[in-house]
Amino acid sequence: MFKNSEFKHNDETLDTPFLFVDKQIFLRNLERLRKEIEGLGAALRPHFKTVKSLDAAPYLLLEKASPITVSTVKEAEALASEGYTNIIYAVGISAEKLPRVHQLLSKGVEIRVLLDTVEQAQILNQYGNDNHCTVPVLIEIDCDGHRGGIRPDSPLLINIAQLLHHGSADFQGVLTHAGESYLCFDQASLRAAADNEVKAALKAANHLRCADIPCEIVSIGSTPTAHSYQDLNGITEVRAGVYGFFDLIMAGIGVCNINDIAASVVTTVIGHNKEKGWLFIDAGWMALSSDRGTANQPKDCGYGLLIDRSGKLLLHHQVITVNQEHGIVGSVDGSSIDFDAYPVGCRLHVLPNHACATASMHAHYHVFDTHDNSHEVWTRILGW
Amino acid sequence: MFKNSEFKHNDETLDTPFLFVDKQIFLRNLERLRKEIEGLGAALRPHFKTVKSLDAAPYLLLEKASPITVSTVKEAEALASEGYTNIIYAVGISAEKLPRVHQLLSKGVEIRVLLDTVEQAQILNQYGNDNHCTVPVLIEIDCDGHRGGIRPDSPLLINIAQLLHHGSADFQGVLTHAGESYLCFDQASLRAAADNEVKAALKAANHLRCADIPCEIVSIGSTPTAHSYQDLNGITEVRAGVYGFFDLIMAGIGVCNINDIAASVVTTVIGHNKEKGWLFIDAGWMALSSDRGTANQPKDCGYGLLIDRSGKLLLHHQVITVNQEHGIVGSVDGSSIDFDAYPVGCRLHVLPNHACATASMHAHYHVFDTHDNSHEVWTRILGW
Question: Considering only CB atoms, which chain A residues are within 8 Å of B356?
Answer without folding.
Answer: 324
